[in-house]
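Dig into what follows:

_____
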Amino acid sequence: MLQLVDFVIRNRFFLVFVLLEVLSVWLIVRNNSYWGATYFNTSNYYVAKTLALSNAAQEYAKLGEINADLAHENARLHAMLADVTQRNPSDAPVGYVPDSAFASRFSYTVAKVVDNETTKANNVITIDKGLADGIQPGMGVISATGVVGKVRFCSENYSVITSILHSQFMVSSRLVRSNEIGYAKWPGKDPSVIDLVDVSKYTKVFKGDSAVTSNQNSVFPPGIMVGKVEHVEVHPDQTFYNIALRLATDFRNLSYVYVVQNHQLGEQEKLKSRTVDQK
């Protein structure tokens, strides 16, 4: 208290000056219509600016919650789209009626990326969902824009994904316009470009054509984007194209992914193992 009194005494002239200045401004604004209007317009402008900044800060703070909500909504839409696509396949012959359980066999779990590699020859991704969330090794992983990879290891609360940017990862892919099937495989260089191999040179390949996951795949639903044809080349002594795809997924900015569960995968694998045992 004594320090406050001492401060007032030492700065009394300055404080009186400030008080008189404030009083003068108030009298001018109160008794002069022009300066009064100018004051209120200016004050309203800065109040509006302050409110806009405050609202922007609050919206920014909620971006994480908004992104999570959008990720869950995308998972629901992915499930609906896969179901509709399987129930009404565009390339099915007349009279084909898909089994309802087969059409709805895929479900999706939203996960957040907590670690992501893009600069190595064999890149992996870590997500915040594991065995406790029903995640199992072998499940496919996609993003809102395309294929991401496949679950390799799981702990109780985390999973490691073999990224599509991995030298040993391949995914069966179909060119939409030519309907030709090949395998997408990363050459280990640019994390935004992947090769499409085993596409016969005797079919027409169009630059800009989309490559999507094919029906010959038990891990990913058909029709998930892999990339778009950026470069096509063929040598006279080869029977296959050299095709470069621009990846649909931007791995440098990967935040949320969707782990794909095929509820009939176990049945498919069990049946295949019987054929192998009998060879």
In short: The two ends are 96 Å apart (CA to CA). Residues 113 and 127 are 5 Å apart (CA to CA). DSSP finds six helices and twelve strands in the chain. Helices lie at 2-10, 12-31, 33-61, 63-87, 100-103, 265-277.
